[in-house]
Amino acid sequence: MKKILAFILIGSALVSCRKEEVGVTEGPNLTDIYGTFSVVTALAPSQPTVDFAAGETVYFTAETSKLTDWKLTITGQTSGAEKIIEGVGTTLSQSDATWDGSTTNFPMFQAEVCDVSLTFDGETDTLTTTVTVGAAKVNQGFVLADFETGYLSGWTNFIQSGGNMDFNIKTDATSPQEESYINMQGTVNWDWLIGLLDFNATAYNETTLPLSDNASNLYFNALVYGEAGLSNSLVLFRFDEDENEDGTFDGASEDQFQKEIPIDWVGWRLISIRYDELDGGGTGDGAFDPDKLNKVSVLHLANPSSGFAKSGLDYMIFTENGPLQP
């Protein structure tokens, strides 16, 4: 009986060993990691022209003989906009190299021809192609201001009488979205406030801005510019709620929320703030009620002892379900 049992155990062990040996090896093939690098399939877009405004996307394909870290860079020939997609592998495909028209580095893309390059970490090869944007991506949300049509009737401002003051709309190639933005600069040595802009609901023929009442699902987004060599600017975004909906904000009985942003970077940057993460409150009910918002103000501030300050502002938009994906 003992001999039979031993035979069964030995047989079972042999079967187990045989299963281990027959299976496919786990992980990448060693040739994929240590082999000689070569291009198997050239870089190509899934379609030559893409209409992002219609919800289309475009993806890129390529194949190499060796597993590498790769970087796909899409650059607008007219705008200079840049989108970067990175990954690891021997192939690019729809699953990891799809572009939805969004931007990594400002400005945003226009309807334009784009240069596409694919580079590989540790390799000298660069693959190139082009793709044409037939129509740029359209962002869903309520646009408070993009300055493309100048000052709206109903916007108001207050500008200090300091030195080198400039709170004017500029139209030039440095705009991060389309062609225009507002410049904010000046030297005010007696006050923190350099100037402010009020975006009143009446400018949009509304008593309160047309926004959701879900403060945890609503985001305020803005593109803000930081000047090289200067880090003294502050931008304060302020939100006045007309809680009794009588058409005006009463600071004695209604809430005012805010968010102060130190501008400690150079160039354009996206600022996104979830509405229920704003600071402040006031003398109202203390609840976040974005559907009762009747004015957004932008204040450009700087320590009066710090000298000249400069910043820029563009494309303020409220979005739902997440921050702006420019």
Q: Average pLDDT across residues?
A: 91
Largest sheet: 7 strands, mixed
Helix-strand sequence: HHEEEEEEEEEEEEEEEEEEEE
CATH superfamily grouping of the largest domain: Galactose-binding lectin
Rg from alpha-carbon coordinates: 28 Å
End-to-end C-alpha gap: 77 Å
Domains counted in the coordinates: how many? 2
Helix content estimate: under 10%
Number of helices: 2
User: What shape does the CA trace take?
Assistant: elongated
CATH topology of the largest domain: Jelly Rolls
CATH class of the largest domain: Mainly Beta
Number of strands: 20
Percentage beta strand: over 45%
CATH architecture of the largest domain: Sandwich
Coarse structural class: mainly beta
Low-pLDDT segments, ≥5 res:
1-24
Describe the structure.
The protein is mainly β. The protein has two domains: 30-135, Immunoglobulin-like (Sandwich); 142-320, Sandwich (Jelly Rolls). It has two helices and 20 strands. The protein has helices at 2-22, 30-34; strands spanning 39-45, 49-51, 58-76, 82-92, 98-99, 113-120, 126-135, 142-145, 155-159, 163-166, 169-171, 180-187, 193-200, 218-226, 233-241, 255-262, 267-274, 279-282, 293-302, 309-320. The strands form three sheets. Strands 1, 2, 3, 4, 5, 6 and 7 form a seven-stranded mixed β-sheet that branches. Strands 8, 10, 11, 12, 14, 17 and 20 form a seven-stranded antiparallel β-sheet that branches. A hairpin with a 5-residue loop joins strand 6 and strand 7 (126-135). The radius of gyration is 28 Å and the shape is elongated. It starts with a helix and ends in a 6-residue tail after the last strand. 30% of the residues are buried. Residues 1-24 have low confidence and may be disordered.
